[in-house]
Write a structure and sequence with these properties.
The chain has 12 helices and no strands. It is mainly α.
Length: about 180
């Protein structure tokens, strides 16, 4: 594992690599980089997202979240919207093959639909009172506006197997517990 070889945390490794690639894409914002790096670290290590039902049917998971949103009270809507946006970005950026292979086999929505779903939910989350209270409105707006560009950054990182190394390290840790 590269992080072990360098003796740095996986979060720092993700931040440094992400920062470099985001700069190459014209995204010069440390707060944005920090948010995306933290989201990646959380989602890459999430046992919930490693469940077979979520891995095999990621769009079903997103649609279930969207259904929950309809019946959620206003205090529950913010975290659901953030999760929908973050998960859509994670899925499209880190695991686009899950959608591509499923869309050929089934009537899974196109990548542009999932991008819009994620960006719109983050934009709506940014307008929530809770986002204002937490100081997250600006970053949510920025991610929403740059959703596709950030997704392409993550795609490039995935092509260079940055996330595969992270997931392999996580899987090894899981086997040891």
């Amino acid at each position: 594992n590269l992080c072990e070889d360098l003796q740095i945390s996986s979060r720092l490794y993700l931040y440094v690599v992400l920062r470099k690639v985001m700069l190459d894409f014209g995204l010069n914002d440390r707060v944005l980089t920090d948010y995306i790096a933290e989201m990646l670290a959380i989602y890459l290590h999430s046992t919930k997202l490693q469940r077979p039902a979520v891995k095999l049917h990621p769009m079903g998971y997103l649609f279930n979240l969207t259904k929950r949103l309809r019946s959620a009270d206003p205090s529950e809507q913010f975290p659901i919207r953030v999760h929908i946006g973050n998960y859509a970005l994670f899925l499209l950026g880190v695991h686009p093959e899950r959608l591509r292979s499923r869309s050929r086999a089934t009537a899974t929505p196109k990548i542009s639909f999932v991008e819009t779903l994620g960006a719109n939910n983050l934009a709506a989350a940014a307008r929530c009172e809770r986002a204002e209270e937490m100081g997250l409105s600006p970053i949510m707006h920025k991610i929403s506006k740059n959703f596709r560009k950030i997704r392409l950054v993550l795609n490039l990182m995935a092509e260079h197997e940055v996330f595969q190394r992270e997931e392999e390290a996580t899987n090894k840790e899981w086997l040891l517990t």
